[in-house]
Amino acid sequence: MTDAPGKIWAFAPDIFDNMSVWQDLPSPAGDTTEYTRSDIVDALRAELARKDGAMTPKVKPLEWEGDGHWSHGPDEGWMEEANTPFGWGYSIEFDRSGNFKVDSAFDWSEDGFETPSEAKAAAQADYERRILAALKTENHDD
User: Fold this and answer.
1) Per-residue pLDDT tens for 106-127?
2) What is the pLDDT of the chain when averaged over all its residues?
3) What percentage of the chain carries pLDDT values higher than 90?
């Protein structure tokens, strides 16, 4: 258990040179705001969640070129490509087995997708995994 009070009252910041003053009793003049322990805990949790969300890196989605086109050559077929900031990244091809296959410049490929959307989702997941694996998070408890 804690010795902290269940309720506290705060004067408005502008009363004392723009500083909040807390006390354990309400002001007789009625110029304080009452806070319960759960109000404060909830507010702190919300602020921590907001800051944590703001610090969580987000990976931009791959941008696929066109809505599919036919490649020409020995493996002629339907194809779409997505470049990354590092140059060419991923391509989706309609293979001879009737499925979609993802190839990448990162020594990764996967096949057997029934739709281009499924193949794009797999490419995006691989791309995000690679980007996030290269990032370091700061933990101030270390």
Assistant:
1) 777 788 889 889 999 999 999 9
2) 76
3) 11
The total number of structural domains in the chain stands at 2
Each residue of 73-99: b (16+ CB within 10 Å) or e?
Answer: eeeeeebbbbebeeeebbbbbbeeeee
Q: Which of 6-15, 89-98, 127-136 has the lowest mean pLDDT?
A: 6-15
Q: How far is CA 92 from the centre of its chain?
A: 25
Examine residue 71 and state whether it is found in any structural domain, yes or no. Answer: yes
Strand partners, 102: 92, 110
Are both 67 and 128 inside the same structural domain?
A: yes
What residues does 18 pair with on adjacent strands? none
- List 93's β-bridge partners, or say none: 79, 101
Parent domain of 15 = 7-55
